[in-house]
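Field reference: sequence -> structure
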Amino acid sequence: MPSFEVLYQAAALCLTYPDDDFRARLPLLREAAPQLREFTDHAAVTPPRELAAHYVEVFDFDNRHSLYLSWWHDGDTRRRGMSLVRFKELYRAHGLEFTGEELPDFLPAVLEFAARTGNTDLLLEHRDALEQLRSRLTGFGTAYASVLDAVCATLPTAHTGVRS
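Structure field:
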């Protein structure tokens, strides 16, 4: 598989809350990851408050656009706790300690892990969830769909059987 570390790191940043640091990084993200230009160009011309409000609308109101990968398979069940432990164990096995404010299955954290280690196991394991999220973001009409388009394009074909 070709090296997509820069794309994964840039996609991770694009999928986090668009604060002032994000806006400052936009020119670098645009140049480093041409696959994300549809999104970075959109973000660059969208007023900061509008972009932030849109992020909240897309990702924070319900789970239909969940950035938490284990949710797609486990939902809000006890089984999800074991899935989260597995994420942490994989990070640890690669010499990384997960200390983020988010849960370890947060897509930007998983993308950053793949970027730093070159290990795409979690992305491949959750390929169906990524495809489902991509499809729902596309249906919602948000520019964030283009970020998922770029990430999904780096992975082999998805299987079926994702939560609806």
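Note: Confidence is low (pLDDT under 50) at residues 160-164.
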